[in-house]
């Protein structure tokens, strides 16, 4: 799994939005300590969290399973653009048959669970999918054979308020192990001066 932060809103945009309410622009220090404290006070401590929606992050996420993608889609206050199986399954057609004896080749396409039986069955499913594609079945039909462990990637945009919710829920020990790793990596990819907004959302066992 790899998470890359491609773009983010400067903090001053959020502090200016907050200052709009009181017309206190003259007190801004252009995203410095005064503005940072204002964002924390209003957005977090005073629970006027809608102001945090002015901060938006854009991530590129690689190497996650379709099982994780399904859970990610439940966070509806975000935008996802996902690698298309309709256009990209052809990547399997030129591969040699997959077997459990050559797991390292399968790992290019699958997220391994660490449970031997589960991973063996995922590799068998991958080989079934390859065979269906080689037989000339269209991608639109063949994708019904996709195992949940099949890797995908996406561009993900989310505002700070929704990201707090995501990190809070998905860094918890009750969350799927893979999405817990994603929550930690998303947090670690944030700009250093933004992380204070999410420190209370990150569960203790994931804090550095």
**Structural domains: how many:** 2
Query: Which radius of gyration do the C-alpha atoms yield?
Result: 21 Å
In percent, how much strand structure appears in the residues? 5-15%
Could you give the count of β-strands? 4
Summarize the structure.
The chain is of the alpha+beta class and 208 residues long.
Please explain how this structure is put together.
With about 210 residues, the protein is an alpha+beta fold. The chain has 2 domains: about 1-80 and about 150-205, Gyrase A, domain 2; about 85-150, no CATH class. About 40% of the residues lie in helices and about 15% in strands. It contains 9 helices and 4 strands; from the N terminus they run βααβαβααααβαα. The chain has helices spanning about 10-20, 35-45, 65-70, 85-90, 105, 115-135, 140, 160-170, 175-190, and strands at about 1-10, 55-65, 80, 150-160. It has a 4-stranded antiparallel β-sheet with strand order 1-2-4-3. The longest helix has 19 residues, at about 115-135. The two termini are about 20 Å apart.
């Amino acid at each position: 799994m790899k998470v890359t932060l491609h773009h983010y809103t400067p903090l001053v945009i959020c502090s200016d939005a907050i200052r709009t309410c009181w017309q206190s622009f003259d007190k801004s220090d252009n995203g410095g300590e005064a503005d940072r404290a204002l964002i924390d006070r209003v957005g977090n401590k005073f629970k006027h969290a809608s102001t945090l929606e002015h901060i938006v992050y854009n991530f590129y996420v690689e190497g996650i399973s379709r099982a994780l993608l399904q859970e990610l889609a439940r966070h509806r206050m975000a935008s996802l653009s996902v690698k298309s199986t309709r256009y990209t399954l052809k990547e399997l057609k030129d591969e040699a048959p997959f077997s459990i004896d050559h797991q390292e080749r399968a790992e290019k396409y699958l997220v391994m669970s660490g449970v031997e039986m589960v991973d063996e069955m995922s590799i068998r499913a991958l080989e079934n999918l390859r065979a269906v594609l080689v037989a000339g079945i269209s991608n639109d039909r063949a994708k019904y054979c996709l195992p949940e462990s099949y890797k995908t990637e996406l561009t993900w945009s989310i505002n700070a308020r929704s990201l707090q919710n995501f990190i809070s829920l998905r860094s918890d020990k009750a969350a799927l192990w893979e999405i817990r790793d994603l929550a930690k990596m998303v947090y670690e990819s944030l700009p250093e001066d933004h992380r204070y907004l999410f420190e209370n959302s990150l569960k203790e066992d994931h804090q550095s």
